Amino acid sequence: MKPSLGELIRARREALGLTQxxxxxxxxxxxxxxxxxxxxxxxxxxxxxxxxxxxxxxxxIEELKDHDVREPLQATKALLxxxxxxxxxxxxxVREARSLSPEELVRRVQGSDPKP
Length: 116
Known about the structure:
With 116 residues, this protein is an all-alpha fold. Helix content is 64%, strand content 0%. It folds into 2 domains: 5-66, 434 Repressor (Amino-terminal Domain), CATH 1.10.260; 70-109, no CATH class. It is elongated and about 45 Å long.
């Protein structure tokens, strides 16, 4: 399973030998807590931050966006708002998915591991 956006940011920062303080200063953050929150997944970088972050971490903006789960979550929320009858079904799917390993869940979603 690919890392989250925060995990990718931390891994790239560490691989480049950069401290949170160095990256936070380059991004114009007032404190390293902001970057720490992004790396831990408690906060999301704004769209204006992504290009600077990509440059600092020597990755493409597309790579950062590929690890950002906000868009699928927003799309799911919009779908459930449009189709309220799907809420109960979605809750059931989420409840069942919690009992699966990430690999097993991916296999099932991709159709290569039928449900027993």
